[in-house]
C-alpha cells in the first residue's frame, strides 16, 4: 500500500503548486491569522528577573508564530468536563480499584463549570482557582490545565458581563500572572506539562484579561424604584454588619454620605475584628488613638496583613466520611426529595457530611 501521510490510514496531505514549487496546505493557517490581534502582546511585557526581554525583537516574530501554532493545537476551548456532582476519593490501590484520585482528576470530573453560575458557589470556585494558581498549577495534568483556563475564561466573561465581584477576579489574575512569570523564567528548573510556548500564550491571555478588567466601567442603571439610599438608617446599618470583608465595607461607604458615616462605626469594626481574629492577636497589634481608644478599623487592616481571615461561602463542596465521596450538595433537592447529593449507604447521612474549604479540597489530594 502506498504511503500517503503520517499514518497509512489517513487521506494524506493537501498540496498546492506555487512559483517556488509544491507546498503543503495547513488547515489551521488561516484560522491562526484571525487570532493575531488577540494573542499578540509586545515582547517587552514578559521580562526575566533582570527586567530583560525573554525574546529579542528579531526573535519575537518567529516565537509569536510558533506559540500560536502550539496554542491552536492545544485549544483551551476544548470541553473536557465530566460534569459530575460527586466523585469517589480513593487514596490507594485496592483489589477492586487500581490507582488513586488526583487533584487534576477531581478538578476535571466535578462540575465547576456550572458552579460559577450559582451565586452561592461563585466565591468558592474563585478561591479554589486562586489557591491552585499559587501552588498547584504544575501538578495538574494537561487536560486539567485546559479545563482550568477554560473555567477561568468563563469567570472573566461573566464578570465583564454582569460587573459583579471584579476585585476577586483581579486578585486571582494577579496571583496567576505572577506564577506564570516565575514558571516561564525558570523553564528547565521546574516541571511544566506542555510546550513552553503554550504557557507564554496563556500568560498573554491573562495579561489581556487584566487589561479588560482594568478598563471595566460600571454603568449606572436608571430605575424609578426603591434604591439603597431610600432605606432607613437602621436597615443600612444592618447591611453593613452582615458584611465579613472590610474592603466591602469601605467600598459601600463611598456610595452615600449616610453610608460613609455608618462605615466608620467603631462597634462595626470591633465586631469584625472579633469575628476574624483572637484576643492574643489583638494584644500583639494593639493600635490606640490619642485619646486612648482602640482604633478597630486600623487594627483590622493591620491584623489582615499578618493573619488569615475567616472564609465565608454560601455553598461549598461536602465530603462524606462514611463513603469517602466528594460532592456538591443541592439544598433544594435535599429538602424536596430528601436527596443527600450522592448514593450514601450510612444510616444517618447528615452526620457524616463535612463542609470542604478550598484549602481542605487541595489537602485531600496531598499524598
Structural notes for this entry:
With 367 residues, this protein is of the alpha+beta class. Among the domains are: 174 residues, no CATH class; 62 residues, no CATH class. Helices cover 48% and strands 7% of the residues. The strands form 2 sheets. The protein has a 4-stranded antiparallel sheet. The chain has a two-stranded antiparallel sheet with strand order 1-2. Strand 4 and strand 5 form a beta hairpin. The longest helix is centred in the middle third of the chain and has 21 residues. The radius of gyration is 26 Å and the shape is globular.
Task: Pick out its properties.
alpha+beta; disordered N terminus; 6 strands; 48% helix; 367 residues; two-stranded antiparallel sheet; four-stranded antiparallel β-sheet
Architecture blueprint of SSEs:
Blueprint: E1 14-18, E2 21-25, H1 29-34, H2 36-39, H3 57-73, E3 86-88, H4 103-109, H5 112-115, H6 122-136, H7 142-162, H8 166-185, H9 196-214, H10 233-241, H11 246-252, H12 257-262, H13 266-276, H14 279-284, H15 296-306, E4 317-320, E5 325-328, H16 331-337, E6 353-356, H17 358-363
InterPro entries: F-box-like_dom_sf, F-box_dom, FBX25/32
Domain F-box: 225-272
Subcellular location: Nucleus
Amino acid at each position: 500500500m502506498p504511503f500517503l501521510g503520517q499514518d497509512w490510514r489517513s487521506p494524506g496531505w493537501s498540496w498546492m503548486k506555487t512559483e517556488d514549487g509544491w507546498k503543503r496546505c495547513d488547515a489551521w493557517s488561516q484560522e491562526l491569522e484571525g487570532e493575531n490581534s488577540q494573542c499578540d502582546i509586545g515582547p517587552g511585557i514578559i521580562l526575566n528577573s533582570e527586567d530583560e526581554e525573554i525574546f529579542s525583537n528579531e526573535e519575537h516574530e518567529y516565537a509569536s508564530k510558533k506559540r500560536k501554532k502550539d496554542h491552536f493545537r492545544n485549544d483551551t476551548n476544548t470541553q473536557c468536563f465530566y460534569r459530575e456532582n460527586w466523585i469517589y476519593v480513593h487514596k490507594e490501590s485496592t483489589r477492586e480499584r487500581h490507582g488513586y484520585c488526583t487533584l487534576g482528576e477531581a478538578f476535571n470530573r466535578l462540575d465547576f463549570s456550572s458552579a460559577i453560575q450559582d451565586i452561592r458557589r461563585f466565591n468558592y470556585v474563585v478561591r479554589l482557582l486562586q489557591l491552585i494558581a499559587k501552588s498547584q498549577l504544575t501538578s495538574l495534568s494537561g487536560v486539567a490545565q485546559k479545563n482550568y483556563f477554560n473555567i477561568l475564561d468563563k469567570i472573566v466573561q461573566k464578570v465583564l458581563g454582569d460587573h459583579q465581584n471584579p476585585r476577586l477576579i483581579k486578585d486571582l489574575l494577579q496571583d496567576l500572572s505572577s506564577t506564570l512569570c516565575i514558571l516561564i523564567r525558570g523553564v528547565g528548573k521546574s516541571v511544566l506539562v506542555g510546550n513552553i510556548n503554550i504557557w507564554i500564550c496563556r500568560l498573554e491571555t491573562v495579561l489581556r484579561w487584566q487589561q479588560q478588567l482594568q478598563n471595566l466601567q460600571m454603568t449606572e442603571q436608571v430605575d424609578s424604584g426603591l434604591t439603597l439610599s431610600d432605606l432607613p438608617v437602621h436597615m443600612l446599618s444592618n447591611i453593613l454588619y452582615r458584611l465579613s470583608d472590610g474592603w466591602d465595607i469601605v467600598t459601600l461607604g463611598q456610595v452615600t454620605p449616610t453610608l460613609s458615616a455608618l462605615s466608620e462605626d467603631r462597634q462595626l469594626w470591633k465586631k469584625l475584628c472579633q469575628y476574624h481574629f483572637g484576643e492574643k492577636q489583638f494584644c500583639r497589634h494593639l493600635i490606640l488613638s490619642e485619646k486612648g481608644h482602640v482604633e478597630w478599623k486600623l487594627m483590622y487592616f493591620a491584623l489582615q496583613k499578618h493573619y488569615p481571615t475567616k472564609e465565608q461561602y454560601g455553598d461549598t463542596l461536602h465530603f462524606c466520611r462514611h463513603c469517602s465521596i466528594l460532592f456538591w450538595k443541592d439544598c433544594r433537592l435535599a429538602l424536596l426529595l430528601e436527596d443527600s447529593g450522592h448514593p450514601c449507604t450510612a444510616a444517618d447521612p447528615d452526620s457524616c457530611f463535612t463542609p470542604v474549604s478550598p484549602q481542605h479540597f487541595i489537602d485531600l489530594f496531598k499524598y
